[in-house]
Amino acid sequence: MVSASPENVTATPNATMTGFAAPSRGSAELSSWHVAMSAGSAGPEHSVSREQVWTLTAGSLEVTCAGRTEKVAAGRTLVLPPDVPRSIHAAEAFEAYVVMRADGVVSVPGEEGTRVLPWAR
Predict the structure, then answer these.
(1) How many CB atoms are located within 10 Å of the residue 19 CB?
(2) Burial of 41 (0-12, 13-18, 19+ CB in 10 A)
(3) What 8-state DSSP symbol labels residue 42?
(4) By C-alpha distance, which of 82, 84, 90, 106 is closest to 43?
(5) What span, in angstroms and rounded, lies between the C-alpha atoms of 31 and 10?
(6) What string of DSSP letters covers 43-69?
(7) Sheet containing 86-89: which strands, arranged edge to edge?
(8) Could you tell me which residues come within 8 angstroms of residue 44 by beta carbon, excluding any fewer than 6 positions away?
(9) CA–CA separation, 29 vs 72, rounded Å?
């Protein structure tokens, strides 16, 4: 069983992620986490090597993916494809649960290499 704990929380300038399932916490294949983003915050454009499923539980976000922008409100689920540039903007504060394969990495345009998602490891 995995419970939320302070050592599983990662705060960035854009959002706070609380890790749940991950290889470091007993899951062999999947990672899941909670993300909270304040109104007006926006993440950088990036792509992830694995599909992600986002289920919004509060608020709403705007996602631009493959050049198309959509608003997603609480109670809806968003499926983001792998290796497609996306950016997330919090039109209002939102909270969501995210699931992906545990081996996903992030690429940022203009930067060499990839980054791991610490909350997903």
Answers:
(1) 23
(2) middle
(3) B
(4) 90
(5) 14
(6) PPPBEESS-EEEEEEESEEEEEETTEE
(7) 68-73, 60-65, 86-89
(8) 14, 87, 108
(9) 27
Calpha distance 6→55 (Å, rounded): 22
Q: Which residue has the tokens 């983001």?
A: 80
Q: How far apart are CA 24 and CA 117, in angstroms?
A: 12
Q: Which letter does DSSP use for residue 119 in this model?
A: G
**pLDDT tens by residue, the chain, 121 residues:** 777 778 889 999 999 999 999 999 999 999 999 999 999 999 999 999 999 999 999 999 999 998 899 999 999 999 999 999 999 999 899 999 999 999 999 999 999 999 999 988 8
Residue (of 36, 31, 32, 80) closest to 56 by Cα position: 36
What is the model's pLDDT at position 8? 86
